[in-house]
Amino acid sequence: QEISLKYGADRLGKRHDDSMRKFRDNRLGAFIHWGLYAIPGGEWNGKVYNGAAEWLKSWAKVPADEWLKLMDQWNPEKFNAKAWAKMAKKMGVKYVKITTKHHEGFCLWPSKYSQYTVAQTPYKKDILGELIKAYNDEGIDVHFYFSVMDWSHPDYRYDIKSKEDEAAFNRFLEFTDNQLKELATRYPTVKDFWFDGTWDASIKKNGWWTAHVEQMLKDMLPGVTINSRLRADDYGKRHFDSNGHLMGDYESGYERRLPDPVKDVKVTRWDWEACMTVPENQWGYHKDWSISYVKTPLEVLERIVHAVSMGGNMVVNFGPQADGDFRHEEKELADAIGKWMQEYGECIYGCDYAGWDKQSWGYYTRKGKDVYMVVFNPPYSKLLVVKTPKGTKVTKAVLLDGKDIGVKETARNEYNVNMPAKAPAGPFVIKLQIEEDASVTDKYR
Ligand SMILES: C[C@@H]1N[C@@H](c2cn(-c3ccccc3)nn2)[C@H](O)[C@@H]1O
Q1: Is 18 in a helix, a strand, or coil?
Q2: CA of 325 to the centre of ligand 1 (A)
Q3: Fewest C-beta in 10 Å: which of 111, 155, 274, 402?
Q4: How far apart are the first and last CA of the chain?
């Protein structure tokens, strides 16, 4: 029995309009976390902090006014928006999510509502504007990351415990509305807003405001997508409302983790987007990546395929240096992923959950009648086991160059697909031709 909500989900089920279809078909994105935190890079007063570098202000307990003095050093002399866009193009990402403003409050655009923006730094120019033009010119969509929590603003409140808190926070919400309207007005080609910093009690007590922001942006930018993390309902319930319905247009809870391919198949019922860091937990630039495990390009690739195999998007994080260049690990990663996408990207772009049982050799993805096998773990048997749903037959198995590698039925709805004679040097893709006939007779009876 559902309860009535004023600020719960305003839609049931997936969106199927062109804008959401493009969001979904993009599948692979990149995150850009760039802000004042890139200057200290995890070190403060001679001490290196192992926590996330974009949270250094918090770990080192730096007062806002002292932290924001970093603006005097913001002058990325190696920054070249066109070079960033070329790197993204080569990696094969179809969209880039940019931190317009992270928790620190520093704005990459010349906001007229804040004194802490690029306009007040030696760099002066509109970095966000330069980036949007460069990415869009490469045919890459731009999404905005926006942190509601703002450590630079005196009216931000973690909770509302008094009339003063309420008055201050209402001023803060109006300030935030103004910045969001400014972003939507100045950069109308933006396709998505990804809200963060929305976990505090102050926001959960203002679910109405989160519903208003979603509606305001959709009125200003028809088709724009909004992540579930913005949203709290009448009772402060986040992401899924008190009736269990997803709010926003896609679930954005998979941060540095992924749904289990067997236990969490329920996620295939809604749209979702995961995001991941290359080190264990660094979004902003950290000078010392030896403090945690750094994922190899193959480990990043597997997470990308894993997400798409369960009907989700994956956003891989980059934390540019203060000088506007990228560290060599991130350049090498973009290059490696791009090479793989060049050869095998058809199993990612526009693909979705196949609905077949996960097998140990890797992941399935599907696009229309085509089912792809993405092989990460080739078996010693050289036989790739495929189990199809009732009424589905596999009629052919080919490599993407069309070469038939052979498939043999071994039992009802079970097949062995051969490994290619010459096992590829890395993860590779097999394309299956299938016939789906619900009325198939049971030949093994
Ligand atoms: C997308 C990622 N989200 C931000 C984040 C938020 N949190 C966090 C930390 C403590 C409590 C609740 C949330 N940790 N990281 C990171 O700084 C990065 O922006």
Answers
A1: helix
A2: 24
A3: 402
A4: 44
Fold designation for 362-435: Immunoglobulin-like (2.60.40)
In short, whether 255's Cβ falls inside 6 Å of ligand 1 is yes
CA of 102 to the centre of ligand 1 (A): 10
Rounded to 10 deg, the angle between the 127-137 and 81-91 helix axes is: 40
> Quick check: 439 pLDDT over 70?
no
Supply the residue whose CA is at minimum distance from atom 8 of ligand 1: 197
Asked whether 110 and 119 are in contact (CB, 8 A), the reply is: yes
Dihedral class, residue 92 (left if φ above 0, else alpha if ψ from -120 to 50, else beta): left
The b/e string for 89-99 (b: 16+ C-beta within 10 A; e otherwise) is bbbbbbbbbbb
Q: Is 324 left (phi over 0), alpha (psi -120 to 50) or beta?
A: left
Q: Tokens 């060599």 label which residue? A: 328
Structure tokens at 251: 């679930």
Q: CA–CA separation, 335 vs 298, rounded Å? A: 12
442 has pLDDT over 60: no
Q: What does the buried/exposed string (b/e) look like for 11-24 if buried means 16 or more CB atoms within 10 Å of the residue's CB?
A: eeeebeeebbebbb
Structural contact between residues 194 and 227, judged by C-beta atoms closer than 8 angstroms: yes
The predicted model gives 410-430 an average pLDDT of 97
Pocket test for ligand 1, best of 49, 148, 199, 316 (most atoms within 8 A of CB): 199
**Alpha helix locations (H) across 310-430?**
328-344
**Angle at CA 369, nearest 5°, toward 93 and 249?**
50
Place of tokens 């071994």: 410
Whether 155 is in the pocket of ligand 1, judged by its Cβ within 6 Å, is no
**Rounded distance between C-alpha atoms, residue 407 and residue 218, angstroms:** 49
Ligand 1 pocket, 25 CB below 6 A?
Answer: no
| Interface pTM, i.e. ipTM | 0.96
Atom of ligand 1 nearest to the CA of 317: 1
> Any idea which fold 18-347 has?
TIM Barrel (3.20.20)
The full set of domain ranges for the chain reads: 18-347, 362-435
366: which DSSP letter?
E
Of 161, 149, 241, nearest to 199 (Cα)? Answer: 149
Number of the ligand 1 atom closest to the C-alpha atom of 284: 17
Q: What burial letters (b/e) apply to 41-55, b meaning 16+ CB within 10 Å?
A: bbbbeeeebeebbbb
324: tokens are: 């506007």
Contact assessment for residue 320 and residue 81, using Cβ atoms and an 8 Å cutoff: no
- What is residue 216's predicted lDDT score, i.e. its pLDDT? 99
Amino acid at 367: K
